[in-house]
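#lab-general

N.A. 3:47 PM
ok so I finally got the sequence cleaned up, no stray characters, all 407 residues accounted for. can someone with queue access submit it? mine expired

B.Y. 3:52 PM
send it over

N.A. 3:53 PM
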Amino acid sequence: MNMERQLREEERIRAGYYQQHNYTWQYVLQPEEYQDLLSREVNGKHLQIYPFHPKNNWTDFIRFKEGPAGGDCDSSAATMLTFKMVYTYLNDGEIIPQSKKYNEYQIKKAGAKYCGDTMTYCGDTMTSGWTPLKRYLAYQHQALQDKTLQDKNHELFDDFDTWVKVKDDGVPITNFENDCKRGFKEYCYYFAEQMAAPVGRVLSSDCKLFLENVWNQGNMIPVPEFFNKARASDEYGDTIDRMLTYLYYFIMSTGDDKYLKSGGNDKYLKLLFCVDEKKQKKRKKDIEEAEKATKAVETKAVKKTKDWIRQVCGEKTGKEAWNTFVEIHFLQPFCKLDENGIYIPVCMFNNQPLRYTYPPYYEKQLHYKKQLRFLPGTLEECECFFRTCNTAILERSRLIQEKIKEV
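B.Y. 4:20 PM
back already:
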C-alpha cells in the first residue's frame, strides 16, 4: 500500500478510531484527502477504490457491501495493519496486495515448524451479517402478520409488508414486479438507500447495532488462505460460535494419543467446512466435479488450518493449546470458563455454553458427524443472537485496543 495511506491508518488504529467507527470509515475521504489515497497497484496495474459516504447507521453495512465502494472490510488496509500490530505471530509478516480489486491485502510470512516455507493470512468476518439479517426479516414479517399486532400497528405492518415479503420456504424476497430478477442483497441495497426509515422502524435496536458492528475490529480475525471461503455456508451460517465449536473439538482432540501425531481429528474441520454436505450437493450434478471440489477443501483448507494452529500454539496440545488459541485471538468474550479452566464457546442465540445448549444431543450429533444448529430459529432467538454478538464484539474490540496501546 502507498506510504501515505499506511501512515494514516496506523495513526487512526493507535488512536482508537476503529474502535469508535467500523472499518468502512477508512474509505471516507476528508476534504484535504485525494481519491488516489485509496488506490493501489497490483501487477503493474492501477486499481482505484471508490470513496464511501456513510450515514453512520445500520444501513452502512448494506450500502458499502453492495454499493459502488463495494467489497469486504476484512481484507482492507486498516484491518491488515491492525492484525500485524495485535497478533504476535503476524508481527514479522509482510502485507501484500491481493489480485482482485476489492480484496485488498493479505499477510505473508514464514511458516512455523512442519508448516512449509510460507503461510498466507487473510482477514475473515467472524459473524457475517447477511444470513442472520435474512432470517430476522422473515421472522419479523411472520410476527407482524399476527392479527393482534396488526390491529395495534397496522401502519407499521403495511410499511414493512411493502418492502419485505416471505416465500413459502421462509426466505424474504422483494415486492417488486421483477422479483425474480432482483436478488436478496441487491434488494437490501435498494431499501437501505430508499426505504431505510419504514424498514428501520421494524428493526430492533439490537439488530441495527449488530449491522453496525459487522465490520467492527472486534468482529475480524486473521485466518489462513482457503479458510474463510471453505467455512462459508448460507445453510449453516458463518457465525463465530460455529467456527469456535469445531475448532475447540479439533484442538482438544490433539490431546488424545490417537490424534496427537496427525494434529487432531479431521472430522471436526470437515464439519466446519461442510465437506460431506458440499459433496452430496454437487454429486447430484456431477460426481467428478464434487470429488474435485471437496478434495480441494480437504487438502487446502484442512491442511492450512492445522498449520495455523501449529503456528499459534507451537508444541502445545489439548486444553493448553485451545486456551492459548483463544487468548492470543482475544476470543474470551465469546466463551465462558468451565470448572476445569477451559474456555467453552458460547451459543449466540441463547447466550449459553454450547455443551449446555443441546445435551445429550450435542455430543451425539458430533459423534455421527452431523451438523449442529447455530443460526437462530425464532424471532426471540434472533434478538438474543444480536445482543450476545454485540456484547462480545464490543468487549473484544476493547481488548484489541488495549493490546494496541502496548505496542
